[in-house]
Design a protein that fits this description.
This protein has about 280 residues and is of the alpha+beta class. The chain is built from seven helices and ten strands. It starts with 9 loop residues before the first strand and ends with a strand. The strands form two sheets. Strands 1-9-10-8-6-7 form a six-stranded mixed sheet, with helices on one face.
Length: about 280
């Protein structure tokens, strides 16, 4: 029993949903303090106080690309694309850093990603296979210069590759617990995972992200791209075969991540099965 034609589709996806923070690490302080998202609330612009959790907003990818956000909250009973699930003061050892220091992004990645998984009810594998993700914001540069040192984590109805975000439930708390709806799971439509359009599994598709495989331990050094690809191919071949209930022929794809994601703490690769189910 072997994969049909021994085909594999290896590629490096731009960013996995849960790795949206890696995109945000590159955001510097070049944006003006007045640019804090569309429909800004004057009371939140350049705010020094720690943000309130549980608030909902209509955010866009353009809003998420900014380091600070003051978009006016909306009732969570109304259509929204973001919900603040965590916020707090930065630790003292980060208080003297520059506004755009990469250490702030590293702290946000570890803090928000752990809180995100707990909030939406996802395990380490599901976090890498969902269509939702999170974004983080810091104070405006003007507020930073006044001594503001807080962070804000928002769950958003999309990921770094999304042209727009999908509306979230009234609250995203526990939305991935149990058996998540296909609307929030990652699939692809096309001849291969690499060439296919990434779509929610509720839409017509040819590939589904079905499992993840552990590639290394937390203290391991990055083994290099060649080893990552080899390990991922081997592990995903067996994992997908089991998920498909051991067919005589099958096709599978995989996503493995590189040094930057490894440094951020990612130790899993994503396995895709050829299936319209």
């Amino acid at each position: 029993m072997s994969p049909k034609g021994a085909r594999t589709m290896s590629y490096r996806r731009g960013l996995a949903p849960a790795l949206l923070a890696l995109l945000l690490l590159a955001v510097g302080s070049a944006c003006g303090a007045e640019d804090q998202g569309q429909n800004s609330d004057p009371d939140l612009v350049d705010a020094v106080e720690v943000p309130t959790t549980g608030l909902c907003r209509v955010l866009t990818p353009d809003d998420v690309r900014l380091p600070a956000n003051a978009t006016k909250p909306v009732p969570c009973t109304q259509e929204h694309t973001a919900e603040t699930f965590a916020a707090g003061e930065l630790p003292p050892d980060l208080s003297d850093l520059d506004y755009d220091d990469p250490a702030l992004g590293a702290f946000a990645y570890k803090t928000c990603s752990a809180a995100f998984a707990d909030f939406v009810g996802a395990d380490e594998s599901l976090v890498l296979r969902t269509t939702i993700s999170w974004a983080w914001f810091r104070p405006s540069e003007k507020a930073w210069n006044k001594g503001a040192r807080w962070y804000r984590c928002d769950v958003i109805g999309g990921n770094a590759a999304s042209a727009s975000y999908r509306p979230l439930p009234q609250t995203a708390k526990g939305m991935l617990a149990g058996r998540p709806k296909d609307t929030w799971l990652s699939c692809a439509r096309g001849p291969s995972v690499a060439q296919g359009e990434k779509v929610p599994c509720s839409e017509k598709h040819d590939w589904r992200a079905v499992t993840t495989v552990k590639i290394g331990d937390p203290d391991d050094k990055y083994p290099g791209d060649r080893v990552m690809e080899s390990r991922t191919r081997s592990f995903c071949s067996q994992s997908v075969k089991a998920w498909l209930n051991y067919p005589t022929e099958y096709e599978f794809g995989f996503t493995f991540f590189h040094a930057a994601e490894w440094k951020a703490g990612v130790r899993r690769s994503v396995c895709w099965a050829r299936t319209s189910e």
